[in-house]
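To close the chapter, one final illustration. This time we ask the reader to focus less on the individual chains and more on the assembly as a whole: which components sit near each other, and how the overall shape emerges from the parts.
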Amino acid sequence: DQQVKQNSPSLSVQEGRISILNCDYTNSMFDYFLWYKKYPAEGPTFLISISSIKDKNEDGRFTVFLNKSAKHLSLHIVPSQPGDSAVYFCAASASPDSNSGYALNFGKGTSLLVTP
Amino acid sequence: EPEVTQTPSHQVTQMGQEVILRCVPISNHLYFYWYRQILGQKVEFLVSFYNNEISEKSEIFDDQFSVERPDGSNFTLKIRSTKLEDSAMYFCASSEVGGYTFGSGTRLTVV
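The assembled structure is written out below.
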Protein backbone atom coordinates (compact mmCIF):
# COMPACT_ATOMS: atom_id res chain seq x y z
CA ASP A 1 0.00 0.00 0.00
CA GLN A 2 1.21 3.45 -0.89
CA GLN A 3 1.26 5.41 2.36
CA VAL A 4 3.35 8.21 0.91
CA LYS A 5 2.41 9.55 -2.47
CA GLN A 6 4.22 11.83 -4.84
CA ASN A 7 1.77 12.27 -7.64
CA SER A 8 4.02 14.18 -10.00
CA PRO A 9 6.65 11.89 -11.49
CA SER A 10 8.46 14.83 -13.04
CA LEU A 11 8.76 18.60 -12.87
CA SER A 12 10.62 21.05 -15.07
CA VAL A 13 11.51 24.52 -13.80
CA GLN A 14 13.60 27.37 -15.13
CA GLU A 15 16.74 28.34 -13.31
CA GLY A 16 16.09 31.05 -10.75
CA ARG A 17 12.42 30.16 -10.34
CA ILE A 18 10.76 28.33 -7.49
CA SER A 19 10.45 24.54 -7.55
CA ILE A 20 7.57 23.11 -5.56
CA LEU A 21 7.49 19.39 -4.95
CA ASN A 22 4.44 17.90 -3.34
CA CYS A 23 3.83 14.89 -1.16
CA ASP A 24 0.72 13.40 0.44
CA TYR A 25 0.50 10.75 3.11
CA THR A 26 -2.30 8.59 4.42
CA ASN A 27 -1.06 7.26 7.74
CA SER A 28 -2.06 9.59 10.57
CA MET A 29 0.62 8.00 12.78
CA PHE A 30 3.34 9.63 10.71
CA ASP A 31 4.80 12.56 12.53
CA TYR A 32 8.27 12.92 11.09
CA PHE A 33 8.88 13.80 7.48
CA LEU A 34 12.01 14.00 5.41
CA TRP A 35 13.06 14.95 1.93
CA TYR A 36 15.87 13.19 0.14
CA LYS A 37 17.60 14.00 -3.10
CA LYS A 38 19.00 11.28 -5.30
CA TYR A 39 21.37 11.41 -8.24
CA PRO A 40 21.77 8.40 -10.54
CA ALA A 41 24.12 5.73 -9.16
CA GLU A 42 24.13 7.33 -5.73
CA GLY A 43 22.21 6.75 -2.55
CA PRO A 44 19.56 9.19 -1.32
CA THR A 45 21.01 12.27 0.35
CA PHE A 46 19.18 13.85 3.25
CA LEU A 47 17.96 17.36 2.52
CA ILE A 48 15.60 18.56 5.19
CA SER A 49 13.13 17.23 7.71
CA ILE A 50 10.18 18.42 9.71
CA SER A 51 8.35 17.05 12.69
CA SER A 52 4.62 17.37 13.13
CA ILE A 53 4.93 19.96 15.88
CA LYS A 54 6.02 22.46 13.23
CA ASP A 55 4.44 23.61 10.01
CA LYS A 56 7.54 25.01 8.39
CA ASN A 57 11.25 24.34 8.40
CA GLU A 58 13.77 26.29 6.41
CA ASP A 59 17.37 25.55 5.50
CA GLY A 60 18.94 27.90 3.01
CA ARG A 61 17.18 27.58 -0.33
CA PHE A 62 15.06 24.69 0.91
CA THR A 63 11.84 25.06 2.85
CA VAL A 64 9.46 22.29 3.81
CA PHE A 65 5.84 23.05 4.65
CA LEU A 66 3.59 20.66 6.51
CA ASN A 67 -0.19 20.76 6.52
CA LYS A 68 -1.22 18.09 9.00
CA SER A 69 -4.95 18.46 8.50
CA ALA A 70 -4.53 17.85 4.78
CA LYS A 71 -1.79 15.26 5.31
CA HIS A 72 0.27 17.15 2.81
CA LEU A 73 3.79 18.45 2.68
CA SER A 74 5.76 20.32 0.10
CA LEU A 75 9.35 21.17 -0.58
CA HIS A 76 10.16 24.59 -1.98
CA ILE A 77 13.48 25.31 -3.61
CA VAL A 78 14.19 28.99 -4.19
CA PRO A 79 15.96 29.90 -6.36
CA SER A 80 16.27 26.70 -8.34
CA GLN A 81 19.66 25.88 -9.81
CA PRO A 82 20.66 23.41 -12.54
CA GLY A 83 22.55 21.40 -9.90
CA ASP A 84 19.24 20.77 -8.17
CA SER A 85 18.23 18.48 -11.03
CA ALA A 86 17.72 15.09 -9.38
CA VAL A 87 15.02 12.80 -8.10
CA TYR A 88 13.43 14.03 -4.87
CA PHE A 89 11.91 11.57 -2.46
CA CYS A 90 9.49 12.37 0.29
CA ALA A 91 9.68 10.02 3.28
CA ALA A 92 7.62 9.69 6.42
CA SER A 93 7.85 7.87 9.70
CA ALA A 94 6.53 7.70 13.18
CA SER A 95 8.89 9.55 15.52
CA PRO A 96 12.37 8.16 15.83
CA ASP A 97 12.40 5.62 18.62
CA SER A 98 15.53 5.58 20.71
CA ASN A 99 15.12 1.83 21.18
CA SER A 100 14.75 0.82 17.58
CA GLY A 101 15.45 3.64 15.16
CA TYR A 102 12.69 4.16 12.65
CA ALA A 103 11.57 2.82 9.31
CA LEU A 104 11.05 5.30 6.51
CA ASN A 105 8.17 5.06 4.08
CA PHE A 106 9.15 6.58 0.77
CA GLY A 107 7.17 8.07 -2.03
CA LYS A 108 8.03 7.08 -5.60
CA GLY A 109 9.94 10.27 -6.20
CA THR A 110 9.66 13.32 -8.42
CA SER A 111 12.31 13.93 -11.04
CA LEU A 112 13.17 17.62 -11.06
CA LEU A 113 14.83 19.20 -14.06
CA VAL A 114 16.09 22.75 -13.71
CA THR A 115 16.82 24.27 -17.07
CA PRO A 116 19.19 27.19 -17.64
CA GLU B 1 32.26 14.10 5.92
CA PRO B 2 31.48 10.64 7.32
CA GLU B 3 29.90 8.27 4.86
CA VAL B 4 28.31 4.85 4.61
CA THR B 5 30.32 2.53 2.38
CA GLN B 6 28.79 -0.34 0.45
CA THR B 7 30.55 -3.10 -1.42
CA PRO B 8 30.38 -4.32 -4.09
CA SER B 9 28.83 -1.61 -6.19
CA HIS B 10 27.45 -4.19 -8.59
CA GLN B 11 26.94 -7.91 -8.13
CA VAL B 12 25.66 -10.41 -10.64
CA THR B 13 24.55 -13.77 -9.33
CA GLN B 14 22.75 -16.81 -10.61
CA MET B 15 19.28 -17.57 -9.39
CA GLY B 16 19.38 -19.80 -6.33
CA GLN B 17 22.81 -18.62 -5.21
CA GLU B 18 23.51 -16.93 -1.92
CA VAL B 19 24.73 -13.35 -1.89
CA ILE B 20 26.13 -11.19 0.86
CA LEU B 21 25.97 -7.43 0.54
CA ARG B 22 28.36 -5.52 2.74
CA CYS B 23 28.12 -2.16 4.41
CA VAL B 24 30.30 -0.13 6.71
CA PRO B 25 28.05 2.31 8.58
CA ILE B 26 29.20 5.57 10.11
CA SER B 27 31.23 4.65 13.14
CA ASN B 28 29.29 6.41 15.89
CA HIS B 29 25.85 5.56 14.55
CA LEU B 30 23.76 3.07 16.46
CA TYR B 31 20.95 2.23 14.06
CA PHE B 32 21.42 0.38 10.83
CA TYR B 33 19.06 -0.27 7.96
CA TRP B 34 18.67 -1.95 4.63
CA TYR B 35 16.42 -0.66 1.89
CA ARG B 36 15.97 -1.69 -1.68
CA GLN B 37 14.74 -0.06 -4.85
CA ILE B 38 13.53 -2.18 -7.72
CA LEU B 39 14.04 -0.39 -11.03
CA GLY B 40 11.31 2.17 -11.57
CA GLN B 41 9.76 1.66 -8.15
CA LYS B 42 9.98 3.35 -4.79
CA VAL B 43 12.63 2.84 -2.16
CA GLU B 44 11.35 0.14 0.21
CA PHE B 45 12.28 -0.53 3.81
CA LEU B 46 13.63 -4.01 4.51
CA VAL B 47 14.98 -4.09 8.04
CA SER B 48 16.34 -2.04 10.91
CA PHE B 49 18.96 -3.23 13.36
CA TYR B 50 19.84 -1.87 16.77
CA ASN B 51 21.72 -3.19 19.74
CA ASN B 52 22.74 -6.31 17.82
CA GLU B 53 19.27 -7.39 16.91
CA ILE B 54 16.57 -6.74 14.36
CA SER B 55 14.26 -4.04 15.68
CA GLU B 56 11.83 -3.91 12.77
CA LYS B 57 11.37 -5.67 9.46
CA SER B 58 9.00 -5.42 6.54
CA GLU B 59 7.00 -8.10 4.79
CA ILE B 60 9.67 -8.23 2.13
CA PHE B 61 12.23 -9.38 4.68
CA ASP B 62 11.27 -13.04 4.74
CA ASP B 63 13.25 -16.11 5.76
CA GLN B 64 15.48 -15.76 2.72
CA PHE B 65 16.98 -12.60 4.19
CA SER B 66 19.21 -12.17 7.20
CA VAL B 67 21.38 -9.41 8.60
CA GLU B 68 24.45 -9.53 10.72
CA ARG B 69 26.93 -7.25 12.34
CA PRO B 70 29.85 -9.68 12.49
CA ASP B 71 32.31 -7.22 13.97
CA GLY B 72 32.31 -3.65 15.19
CA SER B 73 32.22 -2.08 11.77
CA ASN B 74 30.50 -4.22 9.12
CA PHE B 75 26.78 -4.70 8.59
CA THR B 76 25.77 -7.36 6.10
CA LEU B 77 22.62 -8.41 4.29
CA LYS B 78 22.48 -12.03 3.17
CA ILE B 79 20.02 -13.42 0.67
CA ARG B 80 20.09 -17.17 0.96
CA SER B 81 18.65 -18.28 -2.35
CA THR B 82 18.27 -15.43 -4.77
CA LYS B 83 15.28 -15.06 -7.04
CA LEU B 84 14.95 -13.03 -10.20
CA GLU B 85 12.72 -10.57 -8.37
CA ASP B 86 15.50 -9.83 -5.89
CA SER B 87 17.21 -7.81 -8.62
CA ALA B 88 17.33 -4.27 -7.27
CA MET B 89 19.50 -1.55 -5.80
CA TYR B 90 20.15 -2.30 -2.16
CA PHE B 91 20.90 0.64 0.08
CA CYS B 92 22.41 0.46 3.50
CA ALA B 93 21.86 3.35 5.89
CA SER B 94 22.82 4.29 9.40
CA SER B 95 21.59 6.90 11.80
CA GLU B 96 21.64 8.37 15.19
CA VAL B 97 18.14 9.38 16.25
CA GLY B 98 17.54 11.72 13.37
CA GLY B 99 18.26 11.84 9.65
CA TYR B 100 19.70 8.82 7.93
CA THR B 101 22.86 8.63 5.90
CA PHE B 102 22.59 6.26 2.95
CA GLY B 103 25.34 4.46 1.14
CA SER B 104 25.65 4.56 -2.64
CA GLY B 105 24.02 1.19 -3.01
CA THR B 106 24.78 -2.22 -4.44
CA ARG B 107 23.12 -3.10 -7.69
CA LEU B 108 22.17 -6.76 -7.47
CA THR B 109 21.36 -8.51 -10.73
CA VAL B 110 20.00 -12.04 -10.51
CA VAL B 111 20.20 -13.97 -13.77
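Chain A has a mean pLDDT of 93. Chain A touches chain B through 26 residues (CB under 8 Å). With these observations in hand, you are ready for the problems at the end of the chapter.
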